[in-house]
């Protein structure tokens, strides 16, 4: 675990950088945060392994470097990848955590947001089990909204954006099927805490 001071306690939501309601599955694919860098951005992703298939343990195995690369032809395209996210939210709303919020997870890749590069340095990565063009489940929105509120109580999370917003042209997730206005309503956050284009382009 990092040596940074533990953030203020807000109820029983956090134990250091670990959420009390998540299933903890520590990933080796993490690094330390830079001193003095505020954790002020949440990045929403989508993932399914293999694409379009839900359930199973392939996501967990990818993030913990235990995936059998020969188990499916698609896995050969990502063979050797060393990636992680802080959280994964399953289709049924189950919350998994792979990295302490105090650690730097490897989820954003080459990225830029509002004048800053390398969004991994100052963000929390949240993966939703799903595809870019397939609607997400109500349980996922509910858990995501609660997680964002819990994060914002303990860290200065100022905005929630998609991977597509910090890596335009390279990434498309969570995609057109993601309902940003619904997330805004569930969090109770004002519009400025979300990308304007996301609220305008949503199909809701």
Automatic annotation (TrEMBL):
Reaction(s) catalysed by this chain's protein: Hydrolyzes the link between N-acetylmuramoyl residues and L-amino acid residues in certain cell-wall glycopeptides
Keywords: Cell wall biogenesis/degradation, Cytoplasm, Hydrolase, Metal-binding, Zinc
EC number, as in UniProt: 3.5.1.28
SMART domains: Ami_2
Domain of life: Bacteria
Gene Ontology terms describing biological process: cell wall organization; peptidoglycan catabolic process; peptidoglycan turnover
Domain N-acetylmuramoyl-L-alanine amidase: 27-175
Subcellular location: Cytoplasm
Cofactor(s) for this UniProt protein: Zn(2+)
Family: Belongs to the N-acetylmuramoyl-L-alanine amidase 2 family.
Name of this protein: 1,6-anhydro-N-acetylmuramyl-L-alanine amidase AmpD
UniProt organism field: Aquabacterium commune
């Amino acid at each position: 675990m990092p040596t940074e001071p533990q953030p203020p306690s807000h109820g029983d939501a956090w134990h250091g950088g670990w959420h009390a309601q998540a299933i903890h599955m520590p990933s080796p694919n993490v690094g330390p945060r830079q001193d003095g860098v505020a954790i002020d951005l949440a990045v929403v992703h989508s993932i399914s392994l293999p694409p379009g298939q839900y359930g199973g343990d392939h996501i967990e195995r990818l993030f913990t470097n235990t995936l059998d690369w020969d188990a499916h032809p698609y896995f050969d395209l990502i063979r050797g990848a060393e990636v992680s996210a802080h959280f994964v939210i399953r289709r049924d709303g189950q919350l998994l955590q792979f990295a302490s919020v105090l650690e730097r997870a490897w989820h954003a890749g080459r990225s830029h947001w509002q004048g800053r590069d390398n969004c991994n340095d100052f963000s929390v990565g949240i993966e939703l089990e799903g595809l870019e063009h397939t609607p997400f489940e109500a349980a996922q929105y509910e858990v995501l909204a609660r997680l964002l509120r819990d994060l914002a109580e303990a860290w200065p999370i100022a905005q929630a954006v998609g991977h597509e917003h910090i890596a335009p042209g390279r990434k498309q997730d969570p995609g057109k099927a993601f309902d940003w206005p619904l997330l805004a309503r569930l969090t109770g956050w004002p519009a400025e805490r979300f990308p304007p284009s996301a609220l305008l382009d949503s199909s809701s």
